[in-house]
Amino acid sequence: MKPQLKEHLAITKREWNGLVVLSALIALTLTLPYLHNLVYKDDTVVNINEFNKAVAELEKANLPGKDIAPAKLNKFNPNTASTADWQKMGLTAKQAATIKNYVSKGGRFRKAEDLQKIYGLTKIDYVRLAPFMIIPDHKPAVVEVIEINTADSATLTRIQGVGPAFAKRIIYYRQRLGGFVSKEQLKEVFGLDELKYDEIKGQVKVNPRLIRRLDINTITFDKLRLMPYLNYKQVNAVIEYRNQHGSYTSVDDLKNIAIIDEQILRKIEPYLIFK
């Protein structure tokens, strides 16, 4: 039994040498990490407070939005601030230009909330700037009221909210119309919307007796074409009806023209005379 067991457990010299080499490799593999730490020691100590501070600064620098954020905002008047002033307060060049364009055309900031009307200005910009806005309480003793049928361009610009561009548009429309019958007609001027009208309506008045009237029985096609309430086909119909049926005696005759409705007749009636 013993000779058989001994024979079973016996190994050759070659096998023994292989076993020794394998053991040596295993031992070397297990000791390499320790040898590396002994040779290359890392004496660096991380200061966790400094690390957290550096991370916070990095996150702040990478926040989306403005390229340059002012460290401190000062009180300012939005009606007099320059383009450079707006940019120093953190707005982009495009936003600053939009604001200055608004002011140059007669727009005014009467309260901080008006800043929200500016196209391209974000809610964050408004919340950041509003507390620093100072708008002087300017209340003139006497509000000048302009008669818009006789005012020239320079006079119209004295209306708060009307700049040179709006003044030219008002005069151009007044010439086509023949004058204003009521100041509500200002809302028909290109670009003068309900908001702008509400801003200026208390500063204007109209004398309807100053309008230029049109003799419907003698007016030519080209001159009647200037009337903004009539389109090309309607002007042509007025002239053709007159040619076929003779002179108009009253506005009721115009009701016979199918393409001119009651609403249009009410608009043009104040400008017509029948001789």
From TrEMBL:
Matching InterPro entries: Endo/Exo/Phosphatase_dom_1, RuvA_2-like
Q: Which UniProt keywords apply?
A: DNA-binding
Q: Name one GO molecular function term.
A: DNA binding
Keyword Cell cycle in annotation? no
Q: What is this protein called?
A: ComEA family DNA-binding protein
Organism, by scientific name, is: Mucilaginibacter litoreus
